[in-house]
Every structure is written in structure tokens, then in C-alpha cells.
């Protein structure tokens, strides 16, 4: 029997038995495309809870930070999500974090007395209740230059409530040392943010708490909080009629200036930038600078437009870095000329 009839006979027998030959898929041709599944965003699970004081009373306005992480191996982990929320009037809060992640919770200005163990964000996670105790407590007083109590109100940054500051002082708690705890309102003065560590007088009392005194008046210290720009600030001076006056004290995270008017803040280049000073505020980022060259070998630069102050170091006839868009003059042969 030849090969072809034999194959036909075998196929006929298979069909009689109810069997069908298996189909063989041919590999995709040059024009065929295999679509890969598109990635789906990570699912989130809602974590709910509440914050209370040591006596079980709800705490409003507490800043809570949830940090979600997953393990890479026995020693390492990576952050996969983060959220910040404020507690409601009843102390409740809610966060949406990646499902299955380990979660750590922090409360700004408070110590967590019962930190949850092995907390995870899962669809069936039970509500968490955090008992909090304030890290700092202070009795806040507001006085004038002579030490006399002033009528003042304190507006809390935590819950927005305004309270009168009595003569004997106001109990304030639940704040960070270096972050504004609220705003002081005194008749006849602009509102002044208050930060615990920037009090004019700060003393520890016999209970281990603090007496914090803020002075409103001509001799009161004015604070400029440096924030994330502290590395760029090299010094600052009070300005009097566009000229340098008393120097501000440069501290690790703030400038203390003995004036209520504008201040010139010196950066890491030849030109300082000028900003108004009203109570305590945060130093803005340095302005954009541009290189400009002075005309002639004996040219001496000088700033104009609002009392711009120049640093002392520059190369005569050379180029300096100056505030972009702000007018600059140079003194050449006894007269001032504009520098393009």
C-alpha cells in the first residue's frame, strides 16, 4: 500500500471513531500583533480611624500622616504611598492607601501612646483609635515693651479657633517646635504668626512645661523663617531709606531682625534681594539672577529700585550676578550709568 492511501485510511478510521485531528496554530506572520495587557493602577483601600486625648476625648484638627510601604526583602522596604489628613471635629479621619501595604501613622505635635502593631491597609481593616499626648505644652503670654499684658487673641492653626489670651497666659499644646502654631491678633498691630521656638522669652516652669512670651512693640523681635531656602541666605540687614541699617541675627532656621520695615536678604551671589517685613513670615526663594558686566575698569556697581543692596565682593570692570529684571547702575567717571 502506498503512503497516500494509508494516510486516508487512518483519517477515515479516526472520523468514524468521533475523533477530530488537532489544529496546529501557525506562528503569527509579519503583520500579526500580539497585544500585551495594559497595566492597571494599584488598588487602594480606605483606612479609617480616630484620635483621642489620654482621657478619651476626641481631638480636632490633628495633622495625621500615613506612610504605606512594602517589603523588598528581610531588611529593606520601599514607600508605595503617602497621605496627610486632618482629624474632624469628632476626631475621625480616613486615608486611601495601596491595598496590602504596611502602614505607619504619625500625628504632628503629638506622641502616639498606643502605636498600632502590624497595621495594614486592607478592605476589611478594623478602625484604628490613636491615643495622643502633646509633645509640647506652653503658657502663652503677650506683652508690650514694658512687660505689661496686652489684649490679644490666639488663632490656632490646628483647629482654627480664636481664644482670648488672659493676663495669666493661655495654655497651648499639640504644636511642633519649629512650625507656626497659630496667629496672634493684637489691636493696633498686624497679625503675627507664632512659633514656639521663636518666642521672645522661653522658660521652663516647675511642671516641666514652658512659659512662652511674645513682645509686641518697637523693640520686639521680628522673625523671618528661612524654610527650605536657609542654605541660600548668607545674611540680612534692616533697611533705612534704602541703606543698610542694623544687622539681623542669623540662626539655624530663622532671621531675627530688630526692625519693622523692609529687610535686605543677602544670597550666595553679589546682590541681595529686598522684601517687606511685617511680623513673622517665611523668606521667599531667591529671585532669578543674570550676569551683567560693568563698563570700564573703574566702574563701581550700585543698586536702585527699592533700595537694592549690593554685597561688597565684586571685580571692578568685571561681571556680577544681579537680580534679573531689576535696574542696576554703575558709577563711571563720577556719574551713574545704567547697566544693560
Structure annotation, total helices: 1
For the largest beta sheet, what order do the strands appear in spatially? 4-1-7-6
Query: In percent, how helical is the residue content?
Result: under 10%
Strand fraction band? 35-45%
Shape: flat
For the CA atoms, what is the radius of gyration? 34 Å
Major sheet description: 4 strands, mixed
How far is the first residue's CA from the last residue's CA? 104 Å
How many domains make up the 3D coordinates?
3
Computed structural class: mainly beta
- Overall average pLDDT: 76
Oligomeric form of this entry?
single chain
N-to-C order of helices and strands: HEEEEEEEEEEEEEEEEEEEEEEEEEEEE
Number of strands: 28
